[in-house]
Structures are given as C-alpha cells and as structure tokens.
Design a protein that fits this description.
Layout lengths: L5 H13 L4 H11 L3 H6 L2 H4 L2 H5 L4 E10 L5 E12 L5 E7 L5 H18 L4 E7 L8 H15 L8 E5 L5 H15 L20 H18 L9 E5 L3 H12 L3 E7 L2 E4 L6 H10 L5 H6 L4 E3 L11 E4 L8 H9 L4 E3 L8 H9 L3 E3 L1 H4 L2 H14 L6 H25 L7 H19 L4
Parallel strand pairs: 3-4, 3-5, 6-7, 6-10, 10-11, 11-12
Antiparallel strand pairs: 1-2, 2-4, 7-8, 8-9
C-alpha cells in the first residue's frame, strides 16, 4: 500500500461510507487517489478548496424506469441510468452500456474513469456515463427499437450538444444509436447531430469512430513498446474479447506487423497460430453474431477452448478489451511467466489491482484504460467537431488526428510521471496526475461548483 496523505485517506473513508455496495466505484476512486499524494503536496490549494471531495461526487445521478413491450406483447421493465459526473472541461461525454450487469455503482465507476480519460485527450469534454440493465442478446430489432425509444423518452430532457453527449458502449452499437437518435429527433423536433456520437457516417457520424478505441489502444501500446526499442513488428499478441474494440485492435496489430494469435468471448477462447483471420472473425461476430467456436469450425487449424483463459497463451503484448476486472492475479502471473512485455487496457479497468501490482513488480509496461483506450472518446469529440461545422473528414484525416492524440496522451503520461517523482514508464501515476491537474485547474477557476 502506498503512503497516503491524511486528506486522501479521509476522502476514501467518506466515499466508502456514502456509497455502500459499489465495489467497482470504490476500486476506481482508490486507484486514482493512491496516485495523487505528490500532486496534492505540490498543490495544497486543491486540499483547501475540497477538489477531491467534489471530484468524487457526481454533479447529477439519474435513475429511471424503462417500460417496453416485447414481441409477444408482454410489458417488460428495466432500469436506466445516467451519471453526469463532471462538466468542468465541457459537456458530459461518455457511452451508454446495455448489459444485465449494469447498476448504479458500475455506471459511477465508468463515469469517474471517464473524467480523467477525457481530460487526457486535451479535448473540451467532461465525464459521464449511462446505460441500462437491458440485455440486447437474443432480442429482435423491433424489441431493441422499442426499448431504445422508451429509454430515450426519459433521457432526452437531460441531453444536448452543449449539455450531455452520450455514445455507445457494450451492447450499444450503430443500430442502437440510430434508434436512440431517431427518438430524440422525434421528441425535440431538431436534427441535433452533435447530441449523440457513434452515428453511421451517412448521417453525421465520423469515419474511423468504429475503429477508434481498438486502434487507439494499439497506438498506445506501440508507443510503450517503442520506449523499449521496438514496436509491434514480429510480436505475438493476445486480445481478450471479440467485440468492436477487440476486432479493431486485431486489425491494427496486424497492420503494424504484429500477429494476434488468440481472442475470446464469454464462452471461451480461440487460438489461431497463423494469426486471427480478421474477415472470418468479423463474419462470426459482427454478421452472424455467433460464438467463437464457429470460427474454429470454419478453420480446422484453429482451436477453441473452454478451459483456462486467453492469458494462458504465450505472447509479447496483451490487450484486455472485454470488461472490468477480467484480468486477475493468476492471469497476470501467467502472462509474466510467458514473457509478456506490455499490457494496454482496451476496456475500462479490466485488470484488478492485484494484477496491476504483478505487472508493475515484474517491470511489464502497463497502460491503464483511462490512457490506453482514450481513442474512442477522442474520436467522438472529433465527430462533435465535424457536426458543429456541418463537415465530414476523410478516414485518413480522422485516423491521423486519432494517432496524434494517442501519441500526445502517451507523452503526457510519461512526462507527468517523471515530473511528480515516478519513473517515466509509470503510466498509472502519469495518467492519474495529468488528468487530475487539468480538471482541478478548471474547477478552481470556476469557483465552488
């Protein structure tokens, strides 16, 4: 345990008291606060003005009923959430997650992480997150449309391009964004393109937004590897998950000369020593929406396993791109034993604190999610810029901006870590302190808000 200031310990204790039963939120807050003692020692004004207390308390927490009718005519009821966490840098910005695991604590953890992630991009966006405990798996398009329309009927009054701008997350892709936007437009009688990001390119979306989170995580990992004298060329990688982030992480690793040999889904993991066949993976997961076992059935040289985890596969780079707390201590030990050089979080907080400690003690380069997966929200902010200007950029122009943002995030993390007493490759310290300072400066300038 790091040496914490009395002020930080008091804030942690108060957060635990006021937010019972929210372990993911406690974990996210603790991970940030444990890094901030050197920053608070240098900037005591942030203690005197209660910045930490205000930063850890959402500006607004919304929870609402979402009634909808399934294809059999039965009325279903889900619970919707939106946590508008911090708007010091700009309108609340963060995705919507539709998954049975969604609850207030998870949305708060995601929104808290989003504050620092958004700050690191250098864009004028604050932090927020939302979603519902609705499971889109196995639902018809009609059911999903009706759910999205009911969800937006309640949420629309809290949104706006200068107020709160949601995007997609787990369970919310282009289909869901379309239904949500259509209902927002119908209710408000406005084509306010900038109110939702992740839209299809044909009606206000941005090129490279679909690819951005996966591409960005790989760009960040490439920058980390470069500090050790090499990039992805000739490296073996494993990717957890097989959704949007994972698919495009695979694509970019291959483009940079690496070889992704394994990926996973909730049913098990796939190993393909030839390198994951991207077109087959997209067909299985994006077209057929099938399990990864279907990939192995189509390609006999690949194997699918339900025993162990994807982290048992030897690799140079690991990219956890599935969900929170998926990489546990045993997984981290296995990765280190197998010679992993770098881990970059494509998902939000996929590594437990115990796993992170294993990586750091072993000298493995570790990129926390708030830095490594900032590419998605950065490109959402670029989409907002295009919407505001009634403009559309090419794929190449947008990806170039994305790559520049990720290089900037990496450089900022290294420089800040070194400035505040850590090693340059202490990306956890660098990301937390750099994000905190940008938000704290804005909150201080705006008074007691």
């Amino acid at each position: 345990m790091k040496k914490l200031s009395a002020h930080v310990e008091a804030v942690q204790a108060e957060i635990s008291r006021r937010n019972p039963g929210e372990p993911e939120f406690h974990q996210a807050v603790t991970e940030v606060l444990e890094s901030l003692t050197p920053a608070l020692d240098r900037h005591p004004e942030y203690v005197d003005t209660g910045i930490l207390e205000r930063l850890c308390e959402p500006e607004r927490q919304l929870m609402f009923r979402v009634p909808w009718v399934d294809d059999r005519g039965a009325v279903r009821v889900n619970r919707g959430f939106r946590v508008e966490f911090n708007s010091a840098l700009g309108p609340y910005k963060g995705g919507l997650r539709f998954h049975p695991s969604v609850n207030l604590g998870i949305v708060k953890f995601l929104g808290f992480e989003q504050i620092f992630k958004n700050a690191l991009t250098g864009m004028a966006i604050g932090g927020g997150k939302g979603g519902a405990d609705f499971d889109p798996k196995g639902r018809s398009d009609g059911e999903i449309m009706r759910f999205c329309q009911s969800f937006m009927t309640e949420l629309h009054r809290h949104l706006g391009e200068h107020t709160d701008v949601p995007a997609g997350d787990i369970g919310v892709g282009a289909r869901e964004i379309g239904y949500l936007f259509g209902q927002y437009k119908r209710i408000t009688n406005r084509f306010e393109a900038g109110v939702l990001t992740g839209k299809p390119v044909a009606w206000g979306g941005s090129h490279a937004r679909t690819e951005a989170t996966g591409y960005g995580a790989v760009y960040f990992a490439e920058e980390m590897l470069t500090t050790r004298g090499g990039g992805f060329d000739g490296r073996r990688a494993v990717v957890s998950g097989s959704g949007n982030v994972a698919v495009y992480a695979v694509e970019k690793v291959h483009a940079l000369g690496g070889r992704v040999v394994a990926c996973s889904d909730s049913s098990g993991y796939l190993v393909d020593e030839d390198g994951i066949d991207l077109e087959l993976l997209k067909d299985v997961k994006e077209v057929r929406r099938a399990r990864l076992s279907a990939y192995a059935e189509a390609k006999p040289t690949a194997r699918f396993s339900t025993h162990g985890t994807v982290y048992d596969v030897p690799c140079d780079v690991a990219l956890p791109c599935a969900t929170q707390n998926e990489v546990r201590r045993d997984d981290a030990v296995a990765l280190v034993k197998n010679g992993v050089l770098a881990v970059a979080e494509g998902a939000n907080m996929p590594c437990t604190p115990e796993a992170v400690e294993v990586f750091r003690e072993a000298g493995v380069l570790f990129g926390p999610g708030k830095a490594a997966n900032a590419g998605g929200v950065a490109t959402s902010a670029l989409e907002m810029q295009q919407n505001a200007a009634r403009d559309s950029w090419s794929f190449e122009q947008t990806e170039s901006r994305l790559a520049a943002v990720m290089r900037g995030v990496h450089s900022q993390c290294r420089a800040t870590a070194e400035e505040y007493g850590g090693a340059p490759d202490d990306y956890v310290l660098g990301a937390n302190v750099a994000g905190f300072l940008r938000v704290a400066q804005a909150m201080t300038a705006q008074g007691v808000i």
